[in-house]
Amino acid sequence: SYSRVAPCLCSFPLAGECGQQHEGQDSHLYEYQDEVDDELVCHICLQPLLKPMDTPCGHTYCFHCLSSFLKEQDFCPVDRQRLQLHQCRPSSLLVRNLLDKLTVLCPHYAECQQQMQRCELQPHLHNRCPVFRKLREEAERRKRPSWNELKGRKGDGESPGDAKHMPTLSRVAARDQAEPGLINPAYEESEDDNTPLRSSLVAEANVVELFREEPEEELGLRIVGGKDTPLGNIVIQEIVRDTLAARDGRLAPGDHILEVNDVSLASVPHSWAIAVLRRPCSLLRLTVMQEKGFKCRDPRPEHHLHGNTTSNHNPGTVIQVTLVKSQRTEPLGIKLIRKSDESGVFILDLLSGGLAAKDGKLRNNDKVLAINGHDLRHGTPESAAQIIQASEVRVNFVVMRHTETQEDGGSSGEGPQGRASRRAPEPQYFRRRSTYMKDPPGGFSSQEKTVSLKKEPRLSLGITIAGGRDCRSRLPVYITSVQPVGCLHRDGTIKTGDILLSINGVDLTQLTYNEAVSVLKTQTAQSQVVLRVIQTISEDPEDDSDAANKDELDAVENPRDDSLNWSPLWTRWLGLPSHMHWCRDIVLLKTNNESWGFSIVGGYEESHGQQPFFIKTIVPGTPAHFDGRLKCGDEIVAVNGATTVGMNNSSLIPMLKLQKNKVTLTVVSWPGSLV
Fold it and tell me: Is residue 301 one of the residues assigned to a domain?
């Protein structure tokens, strides 16, 4: 059988993925239990493939083997045809799944006696293997004497370099990718028996085809992530209402986009991924990794769905209701609707004499979060009806009941104005406190610019703006276009995307949109105008795109001046100085036996220094999921009022796990890039 034995090199660190000691640039080491088909073996190292890459001439190699070989040569090792790395593509999902299922031994098999699929080894090491945990703790103590030292401590999991060079994700990639700081909610342990409360996250790779009537029609997705950001992967942050993606209903927030029309997005910068997603075409084929929630140790479906979970954003209670039909075709007697002012599916009415009305637990105006485990937070009445029709005798509902519903008295005729008047007040936002200040992530920065010009009193500046502290994300005022007819266009200093700080000394950073427009009009009437702006910068150290791709990137970063509804890329906001950030507090509640339901990345990285902490995954069926306010890409700046700035991930993880029933997260949320 194949095996890879770790070299006895004490100077090399323990790899978080395979648990062996090897040089950082080398492939991970595994000891395989069974014979491996020759088709799954690398032609260079003659071992089972790791991160397999296919060449145009039909051969397959490990990513590290091939990239190392092509640094010295320019041909395929087997048939010696001319070859460059950018011509190669990640192997098919089928091949990657077969490799993930290979049986391997724990490197500490003598002590823990465990064997498992290769894809399960990393979570085993980080959450269940006592020997690996002990070795890791000893290595950290040798490297850094103080547990709570603020600098120099590397976190659990795979090294940043490994994560960023991973060409694609497997079916269980949500568990496998353990970037520094990852809190894997599937493996939160109980203090009693030291065993996982839930066996694993259920994740599936699916292909979603979207047909566009117009080749340039917006998909309606907001995207975060990219290899140039701490998130690494490209992740859907939000589905925009009444768009192509929303009508289709198969994509959801938190899905990781692996490929677009056979173009891999597994290790590309954010702007490059956006350019690929914005390419005009009628058929868009997306390969996405979708979290399906937890596979529970307790077989009861309500194990992690029942109970009271309160959302401070819109106070209410999460309730599970199971309706049992006398026969499969029996109707439930529920009318479902969508609302104009809120996404999702709502109960309009319960038909008198129907099964739901007789049961009495569902009520008018309940928001349907899930049916039979299918996420409907952003679903449609049509998709909900299909799930109900396809169900067996038992139909499990998870609904959110707002406090004002009880006051409605079951009335379904109230208009949206009446509902809005009793809705809870908007959450309070506040300027980022001085103790929460931090530097931008590695690779992002900003610079302040000032332009002073004399002009005719009636001559326009020639700019359009958006943002303002009254918009949903409390964005600063920013420039959406610089028109060729204005005096600022001739000066050339001010660009689209610049954030306005002041005009003639009048502060613009705390104004609403209408207030900013009014101030700009007043000050533009002067003959002398002094404008201060901040330009945020994303610097990607690697630029291996060809000329055609560069043209696309230019179109993304430098839009035409006549672009309508233009908004900056998500990465632009990452470079904004801390004093421009607005935060809000999100309170999550749970029972002792639940996970919070989100994973984080960030903290100290040797290659990037101190990185902010970001939300990477939100797991269906958990408090974070049902609360609905946390989004992928949100930055965590404090936990229970204690700043995360300067903290390493191995300090933040215990802090979060110690919060048994309630935690307050202070977050900064930027809107994802729109495609």
Answer: no
